[in-house]
Task: inverse folding
């Protein structure tokens, strides 16, 4: 499957911005009086407004899902291999929406934004946001775009949690939910890794209690370590072994604290790259949103009960080597959905790439999503 | 199995100190002109000096293996459940030696010690030490104690690497090697976790390039994060789920950056405790020793060839839920030993505790070690 050719890209895209002035009450209790969301759209909304697809982002991505910016051919969207003309989510049939979530650092209102109450950046005072809050604000964006019902809402990892939450928060507004590389909640180990990342950031002296903007600095050391530890959990052990193994960086051992092994060099590079552009306060809040996601909590731990309001059809996908959100966790979701007699297609993709597999161009995975969207498309035409 | 009663403790122990003035050339090329090793012994060396057992320590332990210090009944050795009168390694039959390795921070010469060349602490100038170097210096301690051959050398994790290395470095000086929760080398993922820990320490502003002693400070933030990430890898996912799951710290969600979940509280506590007493320069070097250990490297990756000099009998033990050094990795060692037609007993213990299982009192595990030492003891009597 060659989805990389120019003819299959959505081409040059331009982010848009929507301002919301109706206050939103967040799950933490705080109220945002007004906020902005940055988004992109690809394809055309059809006449009966029935072909919209919402793509929810995970930890370090945002609204730039497909295509590239004018004059920046390398700056392609994070799911460009999945979305475009002739791609699994075919933009010649579907109207695709990507949005930077509230609290993000890519243009939507977040900790970097000015707090109208103080005229200074929100920083540490920006509220904790949850998957439910994101779904609530995404629903307002849908209103803004005149979309009363999505043909599909999709995401991987934390994005999949949003796709799942939509079916409960707004059961009549989503016909299909694609829940990829997901879990019904984080395990103790998942939370533990998030907590390490947060502590690395919070204890960085440049964090200044979250008000680093005013100190003209950024906690890049903490962010770097946070990203390194996160990155390990995105890859499978086998993939790391195959890609790096014990390969040396310079052909021979140096017995010092420079990089001896390729894997060290790779991780440092990932950490540095991330620390350059990502906002620490956003990172903290996104890891918290992951920790808090647990639809079963308010239902005595009963996930089936938690999902009983859902009316959507589901495609649930997991990857065999994903040890962050293992297939076992996806099966918990599938079981709860089936208990509610919902239509569920479930696939465990035998892929070596670990959690990151959801972002990669695996032929079986992409064929599956393409086939599923063919079905959604056929419903449109009927 | 009740091994906790006072009658089965070796009781009050006192560390001893040996000074070595014959220079030792380390694998990194550096030469230590002189150094000291702190050690403890339990039981009595028999007349023909045939009942000595060397216990090698792993990452955060040292020479205090069993018993307790006078007036400090809580300060018990790290393997006190394994070693003592009537315990699996029965000190009424065996003479057990524990030693703090070169580069350590518990009394042996290490980065905290004064560098005779400068009169100031070694700090960053203390050389990188390897498993081979530790074995070489442990052998000198054996000379000092008049032990030409050990009945057994044992360890878990990094300690097991030393027990394995002994059989190659000094094949005639070790009759039995107990290689517990070990791997023939670190995987890319193992190295990656070590590198995260190192970067957390090295980028802590209080690290001062490793010369923090002179600044009257310590990189406790980095050490804390390093320990937290390490700790996650010592426990199994299932054990964490069983022990902590998604239990809340205060009964309800607070939606802030205090500890919400018990696992966060536990990890922070582990990190704080460790950062209080452990030396960062030692931690860096111990993770490096782990990274470098790879006996097959000089034999074209052929582990069987690397171990062909070994003459010892082996007990190799792995734990089913150990994802740091999985049973698969132990089987690589077993296979290489069997290829050399050595006597190998191998057991995979079905234990829920992950890598840490080697330190814990699991009945099947302890019975196995006890039975193995009975066999060693019967050879003594023969």
Result:
């Amino acid at each position: 499957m060659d989805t990389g050719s120019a003819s299959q890209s959505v081409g040059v895209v331009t982010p848009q911005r929507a301002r919301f002035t109706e206050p939103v009450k967040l799950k933490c209790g705080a109220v945002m009086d007004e906020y902005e969301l940055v988004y992109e759209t690809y394809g055309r909304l059809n006449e009966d407004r029935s072909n919209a697809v919402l793509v929810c982002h995970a930890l370090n991505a945002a609204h730039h899902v497909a295509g590239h910016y004018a004059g920046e051919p390398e700056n392609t969207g994070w799911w460009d291999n999945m979305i475009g003309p002739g791609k699994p989510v075919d933009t010649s049939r579907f109207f695709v929406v990507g949005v930077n979530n509230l609290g993000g650092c890519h243009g939507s209102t977040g900790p970097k934004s000015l707090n109208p109450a103080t005229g200074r950046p929100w920083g540490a005072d920006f509220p904790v946001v949850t998957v439910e809050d994101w779904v609530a604000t995404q629903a307002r964006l849908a209103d803004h775009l005149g979309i009363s019902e999505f043909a599909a809402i999709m995401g991987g990892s934390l994005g999949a949690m949003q796709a799942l939450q939509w079916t409960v928060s707004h059961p009549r507004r989503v016909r299909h939910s694609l829940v990829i590389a997901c879990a019904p909640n984080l395990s103790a180990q998942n939370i533990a890794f998030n907590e390490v990342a947060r502590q690395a950031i919070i204890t960085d002296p440049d964090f200044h209690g979250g008000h680093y903007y005013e100190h003209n600095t950024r906690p890049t050391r903490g962010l770097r370590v946070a990203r390194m530890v996160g990155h390990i959990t995105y890859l499978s052990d086998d993939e790391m072994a195959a890609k790096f193994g014990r390969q040396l960086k310079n052909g021979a051992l140096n017995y010092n604290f420079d990089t001896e092994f390729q894997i060290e060099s790779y991780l440092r590079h990932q950490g540095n790259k991330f620390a350059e552009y990502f906002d620490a306060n956003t990172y903290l809040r996104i890891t918290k949103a992951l920790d808090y996601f647990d639809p079963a909590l308010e239902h005595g731990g009963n996930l089936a009960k938690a999902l009983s309001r859902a009316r959507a059809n589901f495609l649930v996908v997991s990857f065999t080597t994903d040890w962050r959100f293992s297939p076992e966790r996806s099966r918990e979701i599938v079981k709860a959905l089936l208990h509610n007699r919902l239509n569920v297609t479930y696939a465990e993709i035998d892929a070596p790439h670990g959690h990151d597999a959801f972002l990669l161009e695996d032929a079986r995975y992409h064929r599956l999503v393409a086939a599923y969207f063919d079905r959604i498309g056929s419903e449109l035409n009927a």
Summary: Confidence is low (pLDDT under 50) at residues 1-7 of chain A. The first strand of chain A starts at residue 16 and ends at 20. The radius of gyration of chain A is 21 Å.
